[in-house]
Specification:
The complex is a heterodimer of chains A (286) and B (313).
Chain A: H1 5-47, H2 50-54, H3 68-97, H4 104-118, H5 121-133, H6 141-166, H7 169-177, H8 182-210, H9 214-217, H10 237-246, H11 250-285
Helix pairs in contact in A: 1-11, 3-6, 3-8, 4-6, 5-6, 6-8, 7-8, 8-11, 10-11
Chain B: H1 2-5, H2 9-47, H3 50-54, E1 58-59, E2 64-65, H4 68-99, H5 102-117, H6 120-147, H7 166-190, H8 194-202, H9 207-218, H10 220-236, H11 239-242, H12 262-269, H13 276-312
Antiparallel strand pairs in B: 1-2
Helix pairs in contact in B: 2-13, 4-7, 4-10, 4-12, 5-7, 6-7, 7-10, 8-9, 10-13, 12-13
Amino acid sequence: MIYNPNIVKRRKIRGFIALLLSTLAAGLGLFWLGFILFDVLRHGLTAINLDFFLEDPAPPGVPGGGLRNAFVGQLLITLFATIIGVPIGLLAGTFIAEYARGTKFAKVISILSDIMVSVPSIVVGTFIYAIMVMPVGHFNGWAGAAALAFIMIPVVLRTTEDMLSLVPWTLREAAFALGASYFKVIKDIVYRAAITGILTGIILSIARVAGETAPLLFTSFNNSFFTLNMNEPMSSLTVTIFVYAMGPYEDWHEKAWAAAFVITFFILIVTILSRSIIYWKYKSKS
Amino acid sequence: MRKFLKLPFADLIFALISFSAAFTVLTLIFSTIYVLYDESSLAIHKFGILNFLFNVDWDPVNEIFGAASSLYGTFVTTVFSLMIAIPVSIGIAIFLSEISPHLMKTPVGIAIEMLAAIPSIIYGMWGLFTLAPIMANYIEPTLQSIFGDIPIIGKLFEGTPMGIDLFTASIILSIMITPFIASISRDSFNLTPNIVKESAYALGATHWEVIRDIVIPYAKLGVYGGIVLALGRALGETMAVAFVLGNNHQITPSLFEAAATITVTLANEFTEADTDIYLSSLFYLALILFVLSFVILAAAKFFLLKAEKGYSR
């Protein structure tokens, strides 16, 4: 082939343009993140005050009041979701990573859970509505907790499985050699070795469901009054954001921004912290 | 099974308990399908399958329901958001794995993944209060003045730009699914063996030619997996689009019109359904959505598993 400086130049220019576009794409991603966070911060900070956390909502259209009911509702629903979902996810993850390690069954459950993690959460809402709201005839907090637990189970299952398979097999063999039963090995060796990873995984799954709205719409619904009774409709921050943002009052919009601010930064901080814990813990080992 | 029976008693109990926990995953999936099918059987018997899928009417007053308008909205927003998200996320992945200086890789990567951690309701609200006005006042009129007079393409941009439409919804969706494609593609790009890349450099390829002809083909399966996963995600996204789509059951060629998706219909109408057939039709929609996204996500998983196998070879 004859050396042609024009072709070389064209190839270089084309490469430069492609790389420039890629860099711009990364810039665009960062721009959106910055734009959204800045907006939530800007609107949220002006609307937030002490009353916002400590007062119940004022009647519609009347300024003032807060979202104490939604904070308490969100906490209760998430708490019970954790109590239901985490043990099931943890045990299931243990089973497929330990007793059923390497079997077809484990593989199938693991793949199905991976799919379940991304299944539309609104479908979970309709399912729980059919089995927990229709029979009783009214929305209730338990249904909300069950819907969130449904979403948590596959998340916890997958992290547990991953974390347990990071524990070296030789560690278990050493314990077996001392005559320990498998149950003892799991309880005293495997869980201990993987505890940081499992706990951070659980916290990540809590952060994940804390932002869910769709599954709560038809289960715990909404309640403009303060309640601790899980048998009643229960308000949550996310559903409140939905109702308030769609509502007609300026004051409601401000409250929605404040709630959005609280929930976004809670989730972002928790996510970043727990991921860096996992990162540092497992990076230093490998 | 025999292996389990030989276990000591405490072991047996623990194995049984943890087995039943693992089994709940199966139970949940099958009972979801069963319950949704059971609840929608009324609508399935009344409207049939194909008839329901292709019926354009969604008329609660006359109790005639068809999924076509919702499916159309879901289809348009998903396809359009993927068209925006795919090039952007592959660009991001290229930046993260090939261009970025080492120090910037982790922070930029985490920042992009944070886009996936922001709850969808925040996207929706931000879309309604911030993005929709910008769209209505600046971007949509500009697009109209550029493309409005071109035949056929102009049809896409007809109507009054309100900001509450398919276009805005697709933009928001594209931002939400970008991190999924970007992070999976980046991970696949990073797995390209250095020796192959160096061979290409030695033959005189430019940096971009190495990326285009070596890195991207090598990571193809992973990228497909990421795209299909994002597709599954986009189908089921509810709150982000519920704010900016307007829940209007119509099939329109214009992107600047309000529309409805399956998820938006469910979110807006589920608690208002006053007749049995109305509620049953909504369950029918939920069943369709569940089956659809399950199949798509399974395909994504298939690609990713195959990619994993390919790399470990």
